[in-house]
């Protein structure tokens, strides 16, 4: 089947214009007309083959249909091969439709889409691919749906956090030291909640005089105390041989510091100056 606009067809040469010369060869006017006609054919005529299959049934207001349309279209500077399958059911006021589209376009692009529509609410995915100007091709998969993966997910690119749910971890800062204090700095967003895990390693098995107080493990933000826990300890012996051993101690805090840069510090106040502290700060909201 040919699709064209007849008004754009080059006008036929007048009968008064000679087509050939005395030797029977075509004159330049005829050659020019043939070239113009060929150029018009190339840009205005498309060969199109279309096939439509429809299977449907309806009983007492319940309707079901499967329609498949295949099209192949070629013109002088474009080509299209596409197939669209539509599955539709209707019962009462409820309608569900599934459309599956696959297409190859002009030798430089492809598209595959699966779209579901249930009573006007749409979801699905679209895969598109297109040749790049500098060579190669790029592909994009867009999904409008919740996704469940029963297995492993391997991402070889960058995982962005454009729409991470509230209270999902978006950044982490960590520091550890053999001394009695250490700290980290972190820039958080307005409205963010920050979770802090701070610890003192202790020195289990080593005993110090009772005068060496176990003290307290402190957590500060910007110089303000936001959490503390008395250092765990173990006592041994009696009289002049009595001693204490400092044990591992953890402080857990939740903070809402406001947007901007903040410093978080952990400090062990044990009386023997035993070191070994660490702090982990997690921003929990986008």
Order of helices and strands: EHEEEEEEEEEEEEEEEEE
Q: What's the CATH first level of the largest domain?
A: Mainly Beta
Number of strands: 18
The proportion of residues forming helix, as a percent range, comes to under 10%
Structural class: mainly beta
- Spans of at least 5 consecutive residues whose pLDDT stays below 50 are none
- Can you give the mean pLDDT? 86
Features:
mainly beta, Jelly Rolls, elongated, 18 strands, eight-stranded antiparallel beta sheet, 286 residues
Mind explaining what this structure looks like?
- The chain has 286 residues and is mainly β.
- Helix content is 6%, strand content 52%.
- The protein has one helix spanning 28-44; strands at 2-3, 46-59, 62-74, 79-91, 94-105, 109-118, 121-131, 137-144, 171-177, 181-188, 194-200, 216-221, 224-230, 233-236, 243-246, 249-255, 260-268, 277-283.
- Strand 3 and strand 4 form a beta hairpin.
- The longest helix has 17 residues, at 28-44.
- The radius of gyration is 39 Å and the shape is elongated.
How are the elements arranged and paired?
Elements (H helix, E strand, L loop, with lengths): L1 E2 L24 H17 L1 E14 L2 E13 L4 E13 L2 E12 L3 E10 L2 E11 L5 E8 L26 E7 L3 E8 L5 E7 L15 E6 L2 E7 L2 E4 L6 E4 L2 E7 L4 E9 L8 E7 L3
Antiparallel strand pairs: 1-2, 2-3, 3-4, 4-5, 5-6, 6-7, 7-8, 9-18, 10-17, 11-16, 11-18, 12-13, 12-17, 14-15
